[in-house]
Amino acid sequence: MARAVDRAIFWLSGKPDYLWGLRNRSRTDHQRGESVHKLDALFRLRLLYFLFDGSQSGVRGWRSPHTEHSWYCFPHGGAVVFGDSPSGHTMEASQRQYAIYGSGISYVTISGLEASESNGAGSSEEAGSGIHCNTCTNLLVTGVTVLYNYNDGVRLDYGSNNVVSYSRAAYNGANGFANYGAASLFDHLVAYYNNQLAGGDGEQSYGAGIKFDSAPNQIVQYSTSYGNGVGQSPVSAAVDGIWCDTCGSGFTAQYNLVYDNTGEGIFVEANSGQISVLYNVVYGNLDWGIELAADNTSIPMSGSIVAGNTSYGNAGAQIAIDAANFPGGCVNNLVYNNIAFQVSGNTPFRVYGGCENPGTNGSGNVYTYNNFGTATTNFIEWGHGVLYSTYSSWETATGNCGTVGCSHSIEAAPTFANASAGQFWLTSGSPGIGAGLNLGSPYNIGLMPGSAWPTGVTTGPTNTPPDIGAFVYVPPVALIPPSNLLVLSVH
Questions:
Q1: Burial of residue 483, with CB atoms counted within 10 A of its CB: 0-12 exposed, 13-18 middle, 19 or more buried
Q2: Count of CB atoms within 10 A of residue 76's CB?
Q3: With bands split at pLDDT 50, 70 and 90, how would you rate the model's confidence at 181?
């Protein structure tokens, strides 16, 4: 565990030393004939005060003789050498802006660590992270926990081919996991109760449990993001579950569980296209459920797909596809096989700003085989501020499919196993069973009932025809009692 706690500060040998580390390598110190453990020079930790398993270790200066549980600074190559293996121990460095930092490194694995309590107050947005890697490539961060850091839990800036997996971020001042300009895979993550601070660095006021920015071809999957922004004091802005801002093309969010955030569930904005939002479960957020927005007039959105999602009971729209009313701003985007169900009030489905196919500003967008529930007053927005209260009037509106029934919408409420417990798979008799459009590969793999995030998520082939929503419908198995059964007693 690497911590950056607030301790008394002093300097070793009259100047700052650095703990370089994270890769344990045993070697023999031939000068003394002893077996020692060296933490190779991979990441820098400013060493102002050093604790080993909660106690100050023996300070042995520069190349002084050492004993077990002690260490010394190696002046050439920037290493700290221990008298015993650091594996399974806790190492703490005093007040500093990063718990773990790396720059320009490749093919490094960070595994099984806790990085917490980095300071960073009053510094740039990039400082104050638990784990921060700048221009790193082929980096693997897995099995880590990042807690109570001033800004982001894990932050990647630029670089490529990085993977962050099976990790947990909670109670950080800004984003739980953040990716800026680094084409990466975020997989099996848990982000909760992040963005606890407000009014400091920009990422604290506008953030997400899992955030992407400024890089194409980013993926987040099999992850859960919940409660982010809850407890923020003072509350300065809504905090999304998953947010992709100006990511270019090729962003994918699939098989995620996103709920109870103070902002939107999944928000994808100012991306050029080929966005895929597939088989996510989004509920109980205090803003819209799923939104794709071409809100930058220099970045049109095209060729994106929103399919097989369940968006339920969010405070605003359940699904929104919108643009900023500029020429070609919203073209050939597809919305199929989704459940967008509003428990009460508001408008579950909103399309405007060119995404309603007005002509010059948008065309070729398709919205079919979705379940918006029973028609109610103003339940669909088609064009900014233009509301519809029946399926037939919406279907025949300018820019839509044109005839009554052409949207193949499910005009009834879905029935779930237990929505209040987050069990959104369909039950027998649900109108969404077998009511979807066959989309083919790679869009024909849905969630299986009973999936549990992040490590118990199971997927399987969709039915033919597919079901509406994120989960594959599995019929209950009929139990046939054996014949000639003799009951002796019942307890």
A1: exposed
A2: 6
A3: confident
- Centre a 10 Å sphere on the Cβ of residue 271 and count the other Cβ atoms it contains: 26
Q: Which listed CATH number (2.40.110.10, 3.40.50.300, 2.160.20.10, 3.40.140.20) goes with 97-395?
A: 2.160.20.10
What pLDDT does 138 receive?
95
Dihedrals phi, psi of 14, to nearest 5 degrees: 75, 10
295: tokens are: 């809100």
CA dist., res. 352 & res. 364, Å (int): 14
Structural Rg of the chain based on CA atoms: 26
Q: In which residue ranges of the chain is CATH 2.160.20.10 found?
A: 97-395
How many Å apart are CA 260 and CA 240, to the nearest integer?
9
- Whole-number Å distance between alpha carbons of 477 and 184: 41
User: What is the predicted pLDDT for the residue at 100?
Assistant: 86
* Contact between 206 and 173 (Cβ < 8 Å): no
Cβ contact 176:144 at 8 Å? no
**CA separation for the pair 282, 260 (Å, rounded):** 9
- pLDDT tens digit string along 226-249? 999 988 765 656 899 999 999 989
Has residue 490 got a pLDDT over 60? no
Residue 33 — left, alpha, or beta (φ > 0 → left; ψ -120 to 50 → alpha)? Answer: left
Question: Taking the model in full, what pTM does it have?
Answer: 0.82
For residue 122, pLDDT over 60 is answered with no
